Amino acid sequence: MKTDFKPYTGKIRKCGTGCISRVNENTWEGRYAPKMNGKRVQRVVYAHSEEECEEKLKEMIAEMNAERARKI
Fold first, then answer.
1. What is the DSSP secondary-structure string of 10-31?
2. Contact between residue 9 and residue 18 where contact means Cβ atoms under 8 Å apart
3. DSSP state, 41?
4. Long-range Cβ pairs for the range 54-58 (8 Å, 24+)
5. Residue in 13, 21, 65 with CA at minimum distance from that of residue 47
6. CB 32 within 8 A of CB 64
7. What is the mean pLDDT, run by run of 10 residues, along the chain of 72 residues?
8. Rounded CA gap, 29 and 46, in Å?
9. Could you give the CA distance from residue 69 to residue 53 in angstroms, rounded to a whole number?
10. So what's the pLDDT on residue 36?
11. 3-state secondary structure of 72
């Protein structure tokens, strides 16, 4: 009996990559909360698919890191 291989994706993401969760059957939520000036700043993006949410989160993280670099 042969089964299809599906790689295990852990529940813990690496630091600095934010998190993605499913809000309901049509909506995904991506969060990123770095420390800026000693305070935690949280931003959220929403999307209709996990892949779209992953892309939006990646863009938001790059934008926030650029903003942090300007303030330093």
1. -SPPPTTS-EEEEEETTEEEEE
2. no
3. -
4. 54/20, 54/30, 56/30, 57/17, 57/18, 57/20, 57/30, 57/32
5. 21
6. yes
7. 70 85 93 88 94 94 89 71
8. 5
9. 24
10. 81
11. coil
* CA–CA separation, 16 and 6 (whole Å): 26
Q: Where along the chain do its domains lie?
A: 19-71
In the structure encoding, which two tokens stand for residue 43, read together? 């931003």
Name the amino acid, one letter, at 9.
T
Nearest to 55 by CA among 8, 5, 11, 17: 17
Structure tokens at 67: 């903003």
Q: What is the largest CA-CA distance in the chain?
A: 59
**Tokens 């300007």 belong to residue:** 70
